[in-house]
Design a protein that fits this description.
7-stranded mixed β-sheet, 15 helices, 23 strands, globular
Length: 473
């Protein structure tokens, strides 16, 4: 078990039972030790739809109750809905989810009363868990009160105030429901704004949808539905509903960092915080200032908090997966949008659709009008962590190693080591190698002058990774 870019992750066989009790107890101890909670305080718990989430949530609830807190079960709702509900009550929360990773894995996201835990919190929780070690826990079932309806209702009410009444009237939108906890909420909110909504692909089996590296299988579904039903767009989210998926009228996914850029324009943001993996054209695409960070919401939040501490206003952030975070209060449609400093999929979905409707253009034309460099990303799954670490160590060891590795593609012009290795090639193309922070995956991100060139560079990059791994087993 370890913390990655967003929460604790591991195999279900490792997380169920003792491990989930251990880390829930460690979290409770950390809250009590730091004064972020006191004995008897409520703590809110929810989960996603993967098969292991209910049992892990029950274990966490029992462990939290045994630690002196009062768990409240918020059911199976989007992570941003849980965070909003808990933060509005100045209470901590815990979300059982593995986000977009396969169902044989799961995880836990921890929230303080003021939002996501940071890296220091992770270290302290890990320390306490290590000290507790193999301790026995009182896991007597705790009858937690059910507040799913209240938590989800507050989140949907928030999203029902973002746009003007009828803002999406005339649009025909498909919602790829699969197994995301956002599936029914998306339908409800889109209908609220007047869109004609078609629910698609609902599944009772968990489907791991990665919105940052959309699979060819998923793209095939989206394109088929778009053509069959003559849709203006198709929207969805990952398993826990904090990363958006928006596809245009052809079923082609819109990149997540472009969705973040669209939100920045909608909110008239002054400060935008985003990881190094987001498109290199973002700085030139708006009137805001951009801060680049390492990959992961804790780093984006750290950057937003630094901006606030420096007296900045209209501060927001987004990740390359499209999840949007707000640190300031923004005014939209005459209503205040209170800060929600955790990834949210609903705001970027609504922003993109509203922009297309407002401009009277297909979503594909709206996306191309931003004229960002063409970008692509993918990952090698089930890629041993030790192998990715060895590869990165080799590439970082010397400029000669990096140049030799990339020689089949091009020569190196410059590099950045903020998070992984982001290399600008002599012809202006960009290739970025980065191990996943929470799964045995090796990711590759690229930018090039056109879609075909980006696709070719991505395949070349992944091929070099495979070739190196095969030769260094």
């Amino acid at each position: 078990m370890k913390f990655g870019t967003s929460g604790l992750r591991g195999l279900v066989t490792e997380l169920e039972g003792h491990a989930s009790a251990l880390y829930a107890t460690a979290f409770a101890c950390h809250l009590l030790e730091t004064g972020m909670a006191k004995a008897g305080d409520e703590i809110y718990v929810a989960g996603d739809f993967r098969p292991s989430s209910p049992s892990i949530a029950d274990t966490c609830i029992a462990a939290l109750a045994a630690s002196g807190l009062k768990p409240v079960h918020c059911g199976f709702i989007p992570t941003p809905a849980l965070a909003l509900y808990a933060m509005s009550r100045k209470r901590a929360s815990l979300m059982v989810t593995g986000s977009h990773i396969p169902a044989d894995r799961n995880g836990i996201k921890f929230y303080r009363p003021d939002g996501e835990i940071d890296k220091n919190d992770e270290q302290q929780i890990t320390r306490i868990a290590r000290e507790l070690g193999d301790a026995e826990f009182d896991l007597a079932a705790f009858d937690a009160p059910d507040q799913e309806a209240q938590a989800l209702g507050q989140f949907l009410d928030r999203n029902a105030k973002l746009l003007k009444s009828g803002a999406l009237a005339g649009l025909k939108i498909g919602v790829y429901q699969h197994s995301t906890v956002a599936r029914d909420g998306l339908v409800q909110v889109l209908k609220h704004y007047g869109a004609s909504v078609l629910a698609l692909g609902r599944s009772e089996t968990f489907i791991p949808v990665d919105t940052e590296a959309v699979s060819e299988e998923t793209i095939g579904l989206l394109r088929g539905w778009a053509a069959e039903h003559r849709l203006d767009a198709i929207v969805s989210a990952d398993g826990d509903g904090d990363r958006p998926l928006v596809a245009d009228e052809t079923g082609t996914p819109v990149r997540g960092d472009l969705l973040g850029l669209i939100v920045a324009r909608l909110l008239d943001a002054r400060i935008v915080v985003t990881p190094v993996t987001s498109n290199s054209g973002i700085e030139a695409a708006g009137t805001y200032s951009v801060t680049r960070t390492r990959v992961g919401s804790p780093y984006v939040i750290e950057g937003m908090n630094a901006a606030l501490a420096g007296g900045k206003q209209a501060v927001m952030g987004f990740e390359a997966n499209g999840g949007v975070l707000t640190a300031s209060t923004f005014s939209l449609s005459g209503a205040d949008l209170e800060p929600l400093p955790t990834r949210d999929s609903f705001l970027p979905v609504l922003a993109a659709l509203a922009l297309a409707k407002g401009e009277g253009k297909p979503l594909s034309a709206v996306a191309s009008s931003f004229k960002l460099p063409f970008a692509a990303a993918d990952r090698l799954e089930n890629f041993p962590v030790e192998t990715s670490a060895a590869l990165m160590a080799h590439l970082r060891q010397s400029d000669a190693n990096l140049s030799t590795f990339l020689q089949p593609i091009a020569t190196v012009a410059s590099k950045s080591d903020i998070d992984g290795l982001r290399v600008t090639l002599n012809d202006g193309r960009i290739i970025h190698f980065r191990p996943s922070g929470n799964a045995p995956e090796m990711r590759c991100y690229v930018e090039a002058g056109d879609e075909q060139a980006a696709g070719d560079l991505l395949e070349q990059g992944l091929g070099l990774i495979r070739q190196w791994a095969a030769g260094n087993r």
